[in-house]
């Protein structure tokens, strides 16, 4: 993996470290100057190693191809009566067949290749031979791939058969929240601007947003800085700059935002009140004018 010359001094007329092919002075130099000025007035700003090079972004896109294909397969085949273990088998086998490694497998001791979280499970559910999908269930399938050292991460919700109107609305609003947030992702906006859009939309629908868990930088590692909160105030949090890669993955709850971790397995997160939770996750890269979706 090529480091992006984080500590190297670049002359104004040298080619930019981001491999755009432009001279530094016409590319990231003015951006970094503006970031430094913002840092001086107390804003949180990305370090250069949070800004990915062209080559790194290409690598993440290649990884994302697998992640998208795996979730497309799940979307086609998920149905009543299968177990979450079956989903894990699909994810495991397709990922390896396509030349990738499932990022969750053995990650900090996580035992399976994918996270499957049903109903009041918020995230990090562990696939099991005993958990069968029933009509009316809503389930999040969270896939992450390593390919050639590059990481991609996204998740989708699936409704098994037909569910209640309220659970369906939760699923739909959670997805809308991601795209309302995405609209705010552009250089010089902040994570707080995105969070505000997400939280406002959830609140307007009388849902809550989980506070203790959020998104993250992603690309050269599974979980990189910054931590991406969806509940901080507008105008606060890290400033977006071109090349930042991170996930948008708010967990939206029907009841309380409060959650707890399963004491037995140390992973599965549940809502405190047992009401359902929904989450969609995309990974994006900040561009000059907005953001591109890398995986969904
Ligand atoms: N994919 C999850 C995320 O969005 C992380 C899962 S970590 C695991 O951050 F170990 F549980 F897989
Ligand atoms: Co993630």
Task: Name the features.
296 residues, alpha+beta, Creatine Amidinohydrolase, 2 domains, four-stranded antiparallel sheet, three-stranded antiparallel sheet, 15 strands, 22% strand, binds 2-amino-4-trifluoromethylsulfanyl-butyric acid, binds cobalt (II) ion
Walk me through this protein's architecture.
This protein has 296 residues and is of the alpha+beta class. The protein folds into 2 domains: 1-42, no CATH class; 49-295, Creatine Amidinohydrolase (Alpha-Beta Complex), CATH 3.90.230. It is 28% helix and 22% strand. The strands form 5 sheets. Strands 1, 2, 4 and 5 form a 4-stranded antiparallel sheet that branches. α2 (54-77) crosses α3 (84-97). The longest helix is centred in the N-terminal third of the chain and has 24 residues, at 54-77. The mean pLDDT is 96. The structure holds 2-amino-4-trifluoromethylsulfanyl-butyric acid and cobalt (II) ion. 2-amino-4-trifluoromethylsulfanyl-butyric acid is lined by residues 104, 107-108, 110, 115, 124, 142, 144, 153, 216, 247, 249, 281.
Summarize the helices and strands and which ones pair or pack.
Blueprint: H1 28-40, H2 54-77, H3 84-97, E1 101-102, E2 115-118, E3 121-123, E4 138-147, E5 150-159, H4 165-183, H5 191-204, E6 208-209, E7 215-217, E8 224-228, E9 245-248, E10 251-253, E11 259-261, E12 269-271, E13 277-279, E14 282-286, E15 291-295
Antiparallel strand pairs: 1-4, 2-4, 3-12, 4-5, 6-10, 7-8, 9-14, 10-13, 11-12, 14-15
């Amino acid at each position: 993996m090529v480091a992006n010359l984080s500590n190297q001094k670049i002359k104004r007329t040298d080619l930019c470290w981001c491999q755009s092919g432009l001279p530094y002075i016409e590319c990231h130099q003015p951006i970094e100057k503006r970031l430094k000025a913002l840092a001086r007035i107390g804003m949180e700003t990305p370090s250069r190693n949070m800004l990915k090079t062209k080559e790194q972004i290409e690598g993440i896109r290649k990884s994302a191809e697998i992640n998208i294909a795996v979730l497309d397969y799940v979307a086609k085949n998920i149905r009543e009566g299968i177990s979450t273990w079956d989903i894990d088998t699909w994810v495991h086998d397709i990922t390896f067949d396509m030349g990738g490694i499932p990022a969750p497998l053995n990650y900090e001791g996580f035992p399976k290749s994918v996270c499957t979280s049903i109903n009041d499970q918020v995230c990090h559910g562990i696939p099991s031979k005993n958990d069968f999908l029933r009509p009316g269930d809503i389930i999040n399938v969270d896939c992450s791939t390593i390919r050639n050292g590059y990481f991609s991460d996204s998740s989708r919700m699936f409704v098994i058969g037909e569910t209640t109107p309220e659970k369906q609305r939760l699923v739909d609003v959670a997805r809308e929240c991601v795209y309302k947030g995405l609209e705010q992702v552009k250089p010089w906006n902040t994570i707080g601007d995105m969070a505000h859009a997400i939280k406002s939309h959830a609140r307007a629908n009388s849902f809550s947003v989980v506070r203790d868990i959020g998104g993250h930088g992603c690309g050269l590692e599974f979980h990189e800085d910054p931590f991406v909160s969806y509940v901080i105030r507008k105008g606060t949090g890290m400033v977006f700059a071109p090349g930042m890669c991170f996930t948008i993955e708010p967990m939206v709850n029907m009841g309380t935002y409060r959650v707890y971790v399963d004491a037995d397995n140390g992973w599965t997160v549940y809502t405190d009140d047992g009401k359902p939770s929904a989450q969609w996750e995309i990974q994006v890269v900040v561009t000059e004018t907005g953001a591109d979706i890398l995986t969904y």
